Amino acid sequence: MAAQGRSPSVRVGTERRNALLADYRPLPGVYDEILGADGQVRPQWEPFLTEWCAFSPEELNQRFGLADRHVHDTGVSYRVHGDIDPRDPTAGERAWPLSHVPLVITGAEWQTIAAGVAQRAQLLSGLLEDIYGPGEMIANGLLPASVVTGSPDYLRPLQGAPGGGTLQLYAVDLGRGPDGRWWVLQDRTQAPSGTGYALENRLALSRAFPDMFRTMNIERLAAFFQAFRAGLVARSKRVEPRICLLTPGPLNESYFEQTYLARYLGFLLVEGGDLVMSEGRVHVRTIAGLKRADVIWRRIDGDFADPLELNASSALGVAGLVQAVRKGSVHVANGLGSGVVEARALMGFLPALGQRLLGEAMILPNVATWWCGQPRERAVVLERFDEMSIAPAFRSAGGGLDSGPVVVADLPAAEKEALRRRIEARGMDYVGQEVVRLSTTPVFQNGRLQPRPMTLRVFAAATPDGWKVMPGGFCRISDERDARAVSMRSGVRSSDVWVTSDAPVDPVSLLPAPDRITIRRITGTLPSRAADNLFWLGRYLERTEATLRLVRALLGRLIDTDPAQGRNETLKRLANLLVAWGAAPGGRGQTPAGQASAALHALDQYGSAISTMREARRTASVIRERLSIDAWRLFGDMQEQLTLEPGREPSEGEAYEIADRALKSLAAFSGLSQENMVRGPGWRFLDIGRRLERGIATCRFARHFAETNAPGDALDALLDLTDSQITYRSRYLLGASLQPVLDLVMLDPYNPRSVAFQIDRLDTEIRDLPSLTEDGMLEAPRRLILKLAAECRTAEASRLDRTSILLFEQLLMGVSSAIADRYFLQSSGPEASRLTGIA
């Protein structure tokens, strides 16, 4: 960065400051975060503006680029509800909309916010214990029974269960009113989202502005996650519990966040199909049998958690989970049924409940709320109808409304009257709320700061030492200038929240104290689903590489101005193999160049490089928590390289370069996996998939290009496809000859591209996989690979023909099927008794 950008003159700094704020006009009647009522910059923002004005416009753009590249390279994304393509879970993902300007809050003000959030979390936690326990609040008339039983989030099977409705993580959406006070807009107790995005916002902005982050003494977030993890550990009955994050799957709106948190916190990411009940406990299906799950942090709605006792149509949960909760054999966070206290219908009763359960007034008041299930409150709402916003009282209730409120004054007359009639007919489904005007915070737009309405989401975690509040959170910023709270449901930006301190802030790490670390060399439990996806990731990547090599070999011969003898026959064989693989279209009128281009870019060809690469990326998205950022970035780069602009047809030379660059990217991933991945079960399944696919592809290459009467150019093509030209030339001075070529690509255990080499590696990897039996008998995958290894070691190149090569290919496919049957399909039925220890 340019030195003068950090040390401007006073005049230059003043000019930049004036330019930033030149068009900043706070909205009438609202609180603005950066400017006071007198039009002066608030004290906590002065250090921020001073630092910003030290950057030249060019340097500021470079800093923004750093933040944006972090978002792009790490794949930070979200999905709008309903924006789903089941064929490609990554297709509907949208880049996380990061605002480059943080929300700055003083430490003193944050103490009040934190105290209010912790108090509210304690109140709702105590209320949950009462709702699923003695029910005193209802019995004493402080809470109408229909507010509880009328909610779809009240789960009757959890009544009286230990831990029913337990609150472990709480989130609250706050808005600042015109008087500067913070108000509660919405409680989040079902399965609060946003902690991972808050952390990503912090990482992106701290990378862009590290000096500002240090000089302004911004509070760190790691201690919150450390405390949250400690709270979950404390809920277990084992010293080293197995904590699972239960996700709805890759089509969920916040799946990226779930994978990110699982990796960051060291939790096991599981879907409902990964879990099974056995002997009264919840277990994870792993490649080594069933392993006990001690704590489940759920990110699915409570009623979807158990199809046996709750929602029978759910495919996301675990049959028998409610029974395990009743027995106390597993802790679920947040507890099943905890969503009942985030209903808007409850908000009007919380002040009185706070006095009864806590003996104190609420530090953070609710936005004024009237539940229309009570005659007097309904009358107030209908009398002041045009002044109200109307919202569903419960989740999935309130016909005619979505999940958010609507401002009555904005509705057409017919809709307004229809809503009034629905409230009169069934008032319990609705609440009336005061229309809150939100404060505004600055965003950077067109080189200047502009005010936009915002809400603040804050998180609290239950820990052994009480409720701990994250010193920050994330700020949702609307692109609209309408400062009413209801407009925030269409908010499109998010920003970090900087809580300042008067003293330097000590760095915090998630690493435990050295004296508490138990040394281990095994990465941990590998669920069968993860093993399955790693296996197929390896296969899809190798399949993509094989297609790219075919395309490059074909295009190289088309471009060659000095063609070898038999070139036309080789071109025909290369093109036919692309057609047979489903990578290119066949039939009359197809040219080799057109087939090569289709094999690179055609999405309608299931075997094309772009199609198999998309499958690889889709598979990788399901196990994103197990892949490094560099690996994920490579998948994105390869997909971009193979994506062609509509209507553009590359030349033969350009298509050759595209295939060549994509092969280099695949080589980079191979280097990452070989040099950076720990040699645990996950790496083994990735490598097994690659070795199987490479062996099968090499057999197919040999069958098509190494026939008895094959021309010399066909044998050269086989050496090209197996990347063995240099080795062959170093051994043999003459041109390509059938038996030496076959020996090199099929039987040579020293050639890393040969079938023999793949079989040797498969033998090693399969040998080191866990066994389910203790009877001393070889399991099917090991038995088949030993048979294949024996066949390969005793084979002679002079006796190899299409039939014998096909036998190798079929045996490799048999090994693949045996691995799938053994490791990817488990049951809690009779086979469970054969498992080696349920740990």
Feature tags:
839 residues; alpha+beta; Rossmann fold; Dna Ligase, domain 1; four-stranded parallel β-sheet; 28 helices; 21 strands; ATP-dep_Glu-Cys_Ligase-2
N/C terminus separation: 54 Å
**Percent range of helical residues:** 40-55%
Query: What overall form do the CA principal axes indicate?
Result: globular
Helix vs. strand class: alpha+beta
Rg over CA atoms, rounded to whole Å, is 31 Å
User: What is the overall number of helices?
Assistant: 28
Q: How many β-strands, per DSSP?
A: 21
Largest sheet geometry: 8 strands, mixed
Domain DUF403: 526-824
Pfam families: Alpha-E, CP_ATPgrasp_2
Protein name: Circularly permuted type 2 ATP-grasp protein
Organism: Bosea massiliensis
Chain-wise SSE layout:
Elements: H1 3-6, H2 10-20, H3 46-52, H4 57-73, E1 77-78, E2 94-95, E3 103-105, H5 107-131, H6 136-139, H7 145-149, E4 169-176, E5 182-188, H8 195-208, H9 210-215, H10 222-234, E6 243-246, H11 255-265, E7 268-270, E8 275-278, E9 281-286, E10 289-292, E11 295-298, H12 321-327, E12 331-333, H13 350-357, E13 369-371, H14 375-383, E14 388-392, E15 406-407, H15 413-425, E16 430-434, E17 440-445, E18 448-463, E19 466-469, E20 474-477, E21 493-499, H16 528-559, H17 567-580, H18 592-601, H19 609-622, H20 629-642, H21 652-676, H22 681-705, H23 712-721, H24 725-731, H25 738-747, H26 755-767, H27 780-794, H28 802-824
Parallel strand pairs: 3-21, 6-7, 6-11, 11-12
Antiparallel strand pairs: 1-2, 4-5, 4-18, 8-9, 9-10, 13-16, 14-15, 14-16, 17-18, 18-19, 18-20, 20-21
Protein name: Circularly permuted type 2 ATP-grasp protein
Domain DUF403: 526-824
InterPro entries: ATP-dep_Glu-Cys_Ligase-2, CP_ATPgrasp_2, DUF403
